[in-house]
Design a protein that fits this description.
single chain, alpha+beta, Immunoglobulin-like, Purple Acid Phosphatase, chain A, domain 2, 7-stranded mixed sheet, 6-stranded mixed sheet, 7 helices, 14% helix, binds fe (ii) ion
Length: 416
Amino acid sequence: MPLPLFLLVPLLACHTIEKIGLDTAPPANLCGGEIFVPLAGYDDSSPDLADAHAARFGADPEPYHVHLSWADDPSTTMALIWRTDADTTATQVQYGLDTDYGSTGNGASFFVGVDQANGRVHEAHLCELTPGTTYHYRVGGEGHWSADATFTTAPNPGEAAPFRFAVTGDSRDNQATWGLLLDAMESHAPDFYLFSGDAVDLGVNMSEWDAWFAAGEGHLDHRPLVFAHGNHEFQVQNYYALVAQPGNEQWFSLDYADAHFVVLNDTVATAGDRELQAAWMEADLAATEAKWRIALHHMPAYSSCTTHGSNVDLQTLWSPIEEAGGVVLDLTGHNHNYERSYPLLDGAQTTAELGTTYVVAAGAGAVLYGNDLSNAFTEVAAVTENFVIVDVADGTLTLTAYDLGGNVLDRFVTTR
Ligand SMILES: [Fe+2]
């Protein structure tokens, strides 16, 4: 079956750049492409082009739910999404090394579905940024800017620079706990977040996304978040409208310093897409020279959770490729607890240096499930809200799992 057109059209986005105060031509080919209105994963019709920037403001033009992600190289680009009322088309980003900004980028805007009551989504992509650099920015348009915020670009790809990221997933219908978890993660000052899916209970309910991003105010505007699609996102347009990620936004890879992140979607719209991802991942992992290879998706291949347990299909289809491809961590959610396997190779315990360690960090608010430690592959489990902090430095990866109160649940260290 041919891929839906949606999957073939890269969600590239562009903006034109004016250098304020400089009488020079804008740099050529920044980002390139155009911003499309994303369709749902089940919709194979052609995406619509978003409205290009126009300096028009409606009655309630102040930006809200400003959040960061990557649609391209984390060391030189940043994607920004925010919301306003329906009538505001102004979609600008001012950015620079201080609050004088100095550069302005234009984006585009669109409605989610046909319901203009949800207001307008604005998306802009910044390119040709300097690696390892903190930028100030604000979004909106003249007279209606968001508060100043900052982001920091990734180190150069391949650079053995220390970094830290946070992992969680499965807030579902409990955004109060998601907010508390963000506060707890903030105390560790991660460089970015990985979210393993099921942000909401029903992806079609925009009110749930509103609550999720409202809880993220003050967090998601200065630390990028990488999303794996969960089964509760249901492949709806709300999801694709509110995230900006590479390619089809479902399966892609990103490099951050000396790490290579492979993001997969295990709740696919089209039969065969898991197999397609297996082939894609095998080639993707073969092509990287990164020391640290880390996978993120939603459903755990290995789990002793009493509600869902292991996903045997993924054990068969994806785990051998990850293990042969040198993936050190397979990070997932879906089974609402914390779990870590022994390092595994073909389902058998091996050394941390040789195997893939399977981690379930699914405690961002969803009702907790049980764990009976029933499988020999499970080393640690804890039935509690949780998040994971991963530090990479000096050839060592250290994973620490915390509960909502900041108590350490688990620590895992490996070298490569
Ligand atoms: Fe799930």
